[in-house]
Amino acid sequence: MKKMVIAALVTGMTATAAQAATITEEEVLAAQQSWAEGIVGIGQTYLDKGDYTAAASQHIRELYAYEQGGVLFKPTLASDDQFRETFDEALSYFVGGDISEDSGFAIKPWRQVRFGEQQIILNGETAFAMGNYYFTPTDSDAETKVEYTFGYIKDDDGRLRISVHHSSVPFQN
Predict the structure, then answer these.
(1) Rounded to 5 degrees, what angle do the CA atoms 144, 152, 53 make?
(2) Distance between CA atoms of 53 and 78, rounded to whole angstroms?
(3) I need a surface site. Which of 59, 106, 143, 160 has the fewest CB within 10 A?
């Protein structure tokens, strides 16, 4: 605790402000749960013939850092346009749209997304998680294993935002 107080005094922050900026493992796990529920929710909205584009827009706005300075996003099923630097490019990946290779990852749809084994590194105002997550489609029990790396920052309101999202299918010989 002494180091945090000293660091806070040196940077001009109060100890409370320094603690508020520090990301915890519980926050990372909660953000992962929100992300998983959001992907499932977008797909359910699609099945219900609702406004799934609005659901995906809300998902991106609430969980990604596009409005806080940008996101490094490399989606799983992107090969022609591998990196999604803007909100609109992320939206296209999740629900289809401006990029021709996008068929709407989140409107597959998935009935379950779960995070499996992983490592989490907490580094004050940033955090990183790397591991596997598993996607189960609505029409099957077969899970698809995907590798991911998520980087997190906090916004001005203290909410966790994804600033790095790399996702890929495991290498196969």
Answers:
(1) 60
(2) 19
(3) 143
In this prediction, the residues of the chain whose per-residue pLDDT falls under 50 are: 1-15, 18
- Please, what is the angle between helix 87-95 and helix 25-47, to 10°? 60
- 3-state DSSP call for residue 133? strand
Q: Specify the DSSP class assigned to residue 64.
A: B
Q: How far apart, in whole angstroms, are the C-alpha atoms of residue 41 and residue 162? A: 18
Distances (CA, A) of 122 to 78, 129, 130, 132: 29, 9, 12, 18
The dihedral through the CA atoms of 47, 51, 53, 59 has a sign that is negative
DSSP 29: H
Predicted local confidence at residue 164, as pLDDT: 98
Q: What is the pLDDT of residue 98?
A: 86
The answer to whether 132 touches 148, Cβ cutoff 8 Å, is yes
Strand partners, 167: 148
Q: State how far the Cα of 150 lies from the Cα of 131, in Å rounded to an integer.
A: 9
Determine the Cα–Cα distance for residues 138 and 38; give it in Å rounded to an integer. 15
SS3 16: helix
Place of tokens 């010989």: 173
Single-letter amino acid, residue 94? F
Q: DSSP secondary structure string, 143-169?
A: -EEEEEEEEEEE-TTS-EEEEEEEEEP
